[in-house]
Design a protein that fits this description.
The longest helix has 18 residues. This protein has a domain of 71 residues. With 296 residues, the chain is of the alpha/beta class. The strands form three sheets. The chain has a six-stranded mixed sheet, with helices on both faces. A four-stranded antiparallel sheet has the order 2-1-4-5, with helices on one face. Strands 12-13-11-14 form a four-stranded antiparallel sheet. The chain is 31% helix and 28% strand. The chain has ten helices and 14 strands.
Length: 296
């Protein structure tokens, strides 16, 4: 269920009624979203759900077909250097500066950021066993991803945007990244938006979660509210069950004739009367179970 938070000019990222497509294919359909300051905001969805497109529109890298997006209250398509200096972005497949050596690239980037954390860079290069003299083009995908993350975090951004940051990382590096995201948010108040299809990563660090499916936002809520506001409803038969009702996110008919529904309610509201009137059984869901049930 969509969280009805009102956006503010001080929200690091926000958008209103975004629409976008490629050719005849609709990618985003009416996305409205606001990411509050200090949040660790996880954007989940299957591959091809539109996560990367949404992120690139939010940052002004793509002009949407309709709607608007803002970064710290500024139109995403008209960001000045001051706003750009407050954020760092790591795309899903970092390919920039491939002809340069690691040290050369980091020294070049450093010149643009007065808050550059050189000690952090040295420590992380040592931990990842990546030499400054190595050419970026010669590194593995996981090593290039690590360098891109080091580069972004070294700028000490107020807003950190990561598109599938763990896709090329091994489990140990993924866990280290999640720890670093949690530390930055907790110690410095960094706002983080990261997309992923690895739901267990979200459950470790996210304060808010949004689910994008077939171009629509099906879930946008604080992590702590999800188990209280979403559930699976099971019936032994589909007889007497309406074809659709308010709060329904998905339904599945099983071979034995039973029916299961994923339903949502607003915080503080009662569950649908179907829970009792038709003998339904309510089951709580983990975030991973909720994700699978909705997108399957």
């Amino acid at each position: 269920m969509i969280d009805q938070r009102k956006s503010s000019d001080e929200d690091p990222l926000s958008c209103l009624e975004l629409h976008h497509g490629f050719g005849n294919r609709k990618i985003l359909e009416g996305i409205t979203l606001s990411i509050p300051r200090g949040a660790v905001f996880g954007l989940i969805g299957r591959n091809g759900a539109g996560k990367s497109t949404l992120i690139r529109i939010l940052l002004g890298l793509i002009r949407p077909d309709g709607g608007e997006s803002r970064v710290y209250g500024c139109d995403s398509l008209e960001l000045d250097d001051t706003v750009k200096g407050r954020l760092a972005y790591v795309p899903q497949q970092p390919e920039s500066f491939q002809w340069m050596k690691v040290g050369e690239m980091l020294d070049f980037i450093r010149a643009f950021y007065p808050k550059w954390d050189a000690d952090y860079v040295d420590a992380m290069l040592h931990r990842a066993a990546i030499l400054r003299g190595a050419r970026l083009a010669d590194l593995s995908p996981g090593e290039r991803q690590s360098i891109a993350l080091i580069r972004a975090l070294a700028t000490q951004p107020e807003l950190l945007v990561l598109d599938e940051p763990a896709a090329a990382l091994d489990p140990a590096a993924r866990r280290e990244l999640m720890r670093e995201i949690a530390r930055r948010a907790g110690d410095s108040g960094t706002t983080v938006l990261f997309s992923t299809h690895i739901v267990t990563d979200l459950e470790r660090v996210a304060s808010h979660v949004a689910l994008l499916h077939h171009g629509r936002l099906l879930l946008d809520a604080p992590m702590d509210d999800i188990k209280e506001t979403h559930a699976r409803l099971r019936f032994s038969t589909d007889v007497g069950i309406p074809a659709h009702f308010t709060g329904e996110l998905s339904r599945r008919r099983h071979d034995d004739g039973s029916l299961s529904l994923i339903v949502a309610r607003n915080a503080g509201e009662q569950w649908p009367t179907l829970f009792t009137s038709e003998g339904g059984v309510r089951e709580s869901l983990s975030l991973e179970e909720l994700f699978v049930e909705i997108v399957q």
